[in-house]
Amino acid sequence: MRIAHPTRALRTKTGTPLLSIEGLEVHYGGIRALKGISLSIDQGEIVSVIGANGAGKTTTLKTISRLLPITAGTIRYDDRDLGAMSTEEVVEAGISLVPEGRAIFPNLTVRENLELGAFHHKHRQTMAETMEDVTKLFPRLGERLGQDGGTLSGGEQQMLAIGRALMARPSLLLLDEPSLGIAPKLAQQIFAAIRTIAEAGMTILLVEQNTRLALSVSRRAYVLRTGEVSLEGDAKDLAKNEEIQKAYLGGV
Question: Quick one: fold of 19-248?
Answer without folding.
Answer: Rossmann fold (3.40.50)
